[in-house]
Amino acid sequence: VYSEYHRDILADFGIPSKKTSKLPAGVDPIFSVDQSPTKNQRESVHLLYVGDLSEHKGLPVLIEALKGLSQEVHVTVLGAGDPKKFPTEQFSNVTVKGFVERKELPKYYKEADLHVMPSIDETAGTNTVIESLACGTPVVVTDKIGINEFPPADASVLFWPREPEPLATAIADGITRLPQLQAAARAHAEE
């Protein structure tokens, strides 16, 4: 299994926990740390959302959370789905790129200051969190089993409940602690 969450799912199907093993998360080598980061040479903080453009993945929660931020941010949204379902056009600081090929993702992770994943759950694993951290980019994620098991505490900010105000608070906290979070994420990625 990938997480305790997955172990619990299998237990619901009658497979005893003692008959399962937890595997360490793996990541494609294309997700790696740049040797010369240039992230902090910008005026605004760059946030990245990677996932389906859906309520389940939390895009509406992120959009609403932007209204509660006092810091200047720019958000890049990557993922399949209809962007017209979500009112991103009301924000001049949100760029919806749509679907991006997997081989292009490392560039976006490396350009971001923080990766934000407000998903309700990740039944197939937290690939975007693992990929982001492998690129040395810290994460802001939902504090829910199956998601919160992967990011190291010193390279992440967890939030709950999955609502705009707690997410805005978590993003603001991440921005305040950005140098420490980025240093920790880079250190973990280079291990």
Q: How many angstroms separate the termini?
A: 23 Å
Number of separate helices: 6
> Which residues form runs of ≥5 with pLDDT under 50?
none
Estimate what percentage of residues fall within beta strands.
15-25%
Spatial extent as radius of gyration: 16 Å
Overview features:
191 residues; alpha/beta; 6 helices; 30% helix; 15% strand
How would you describe this protein?
This protein has about 190 residues and is an alpha/beta fold. Helices cover about 30% and strands about 15% of the residues. The protein contains six helices and six strands. It has helices spanning about 5-10, 60-65, 105-110, 125-135, 165-175, 180-190, and strands at about 45-50, 75-80, 95-100, 115, 140, 155-160. It has a six-stranded parallel beta sheet with strand order 3-2-1-4-5-6, with helices on both faces. Helix 2 (about 60-65) packs across helix 5 (about 165-175). The radius of gyration is 16 Å and the shape is globular. The model has no long low-confidence stretch (mean pLDDT about 90).
